Structure formats: structure tokens, C-alpha cells
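Can anyone check this?
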Amino acid sequence: MSNKSSDREVELRAFDETKLGVKGIVDAGVTTIPSIFIHPISKRAQPPKTNTTNDVASRFRFPIIDLSASENDSELRKKAIEEILEASKTWGFFQVVNHEISDRVLEEMLQGVRDFFEQGDEVKKYYYSRDFANKRFTYLSNVDLYTGPAANWRDSFGCRMAPHPPHPDELPPPCRKILIEYSSQVMKLVKMLFELLSEALGLQKNHLNDMGCAEGLNVSGHYYPACPQPELTMGISKHADNAFLTILLQDQIGGLQILHQNEWVDVPPTPGALVINIGDLLQLVTNDLFKSVEHRALANCKGPRISVASFFSTYFQETPRRFAPIKELLCDSNPPKYREITVKEYISYFINKGHDGTSALPHFKI
């Protein structure tokens, strides 16, 4: 091991062992970021050229889909399905409005995340762990701290809420009640989304739900503290999601970008909207019809930015289910592109690979 990599390993362990995350660095009053957070120039967000931001915004209209009355009005439902099909094939992302989760619940969930990260250090340290295979609730900084090329300016908690929800006492008091309520609401919403996605694929509306795509839910709360040198690091580096579907609640600070037609496009914070994106596992079972698209979040000097990602996957939980491209979508001209896998097999490879800017899917191709 070279001195450079050895020094880096020491720095990473020292940071990890504080159990205070990035917020602890900010609370210490730093004006320059530690070297473990500095990304290679090629991996950073480049400052936009003059008028580029406006050009991108005018050329690309991020899809917003209205879910109101789609259950009872056949024409509105058909319109929503067509829009979801187009967005899932071309963007891999869309926002939904009129999704029936109240503004109160959305606001309380964001506040619950903030309250967790801003509670006393000693209380918060109790939950710090990298044993996400066995613990129902874990708080940490950077899932891929030891495997990624550079650390990201973000702290997170993750909580397995389905199929075997934790006892309420296992959840931290600042976000306990709202985590349970929010999780129940997003489970209802994702079942409706999987119905619409099934119909968009030309399948029976229960197909994706019956396959088990909505069986597992992990809710992650993310806290991006204000960064003194946001141009040197990232909130989260380029990656695609390791789930079937993600439902993202974000505050109004912004910073989420997706890679669309080789350009980074801002996902505009829309009051009351939720961001939906296709994950790797849904791309796999649709045989690449739906796209799991790379995205990232910028570090910012405003902070803290708060977001809540609901990932639909069973992750490390033992389940007999195996997944492969859906037979009804295959034909001679569209043969299966992926081998049959378990979710646990996929996630183990994804975690070990780290956020290195490459997709995990090619590893599972036939």
C-alpha cells in the first residue's frame, strides 16, 4: 500500500470513528474541506458556461405527471399512463403531483430528518453503524466511504420499513412517528405507481406488484450540510439507484441533477411534488425498456439541504424471489439481456463496487 493510500485510509477511519459525520466537520467551524472529500476534477460539477443553464432549462422540460382522478377517469388514467411510459423510457425520472400524500405529512417528514441530524451528538452516535445488513435503523456518513473514490458531503440514515417493519422503539424519537406515517403513505403510492407502470408496459395492472417489486421499503433521510468549498466536492456523486423504484421528497434548496442526453439537467424543486425514478432492478426486469438513469446532487453553501428517499427493494433481506426480464415483454427480436438474480446478489455487488460512476447492470448481462 502506498503512503498516499495509507494516509487516506487513516483519514477515513479517523473521520468514521468520530460518528459525527459531515455535520461534525461543519460544527467544528472548518473553512476548508478535508482532503478525503475532494473529488477529482473530472468528477466535479463544472461551472456552467454563460447561458448554458438557461439553454438546458429551455430545451428540456422535466416531466410532471398529474395523478389526480386517474383511478376514476379512464381518459385521465390513459393520459397518465402514456406520460409515465414516455418518461420511463426517455428520462428515467418524473415528478408526480396530486399523489394524495398531504403537505403536512411531507413537511413533517422533512422536519423529522432535520431534527434527527440536529439532535445532541451523544444521542445521535448511538445509532451510528455500518451494519445495515442486520440493523433496522442505521445512521452513518457515506455508505461507500471505504470503497468510493472520494467521500461525499452528506450524512444519512436508513431504515428498513417493509416487509418487516421495526418496533417503534427501534426508531429515534425525533422522527419515529412521522417515519411510520410517511412509510405507510408511500407504500400506498408505490402500489398505485406500479399499477400504472404495469399498464404502461402493456401488462395486467397488478403484474409488478404481484412480482414483489413493492415488497421491500428502505427509507433514507439525507442531510447535506452547508459546504465551505462546494466546488471541490459533491453532495452525492454520479450513480443510478439500486432498487426497483425510488420516491424522493426534497426540500426547496435544489441541487438534484439527472444525466439526460449527455447533459446535466436540474430537477426543479416543485412544492408538493414527489420525484419518481426508475431503479436498476426495474430496468433489468423490463429488459432495458425502462431506464435507470444516472443522477447526482451538488454540494451547496446554503444548506442544510434535506431529502428523503424511499427505495423499493428488499436489499439484504432473505427472500426466495428471483428476478429476470419479464417473459411477456420478450420475443425473438427482444431476447433476454440479463440473467436471473436475487436482490441480495445484486445489492452485494453494488455495495462492493462503490459509487465509482459506473453502472452495476452490465455485471448481470447474459
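Reply from J.R.: I decoded it. The chain has one domain: 3-30+47-364.
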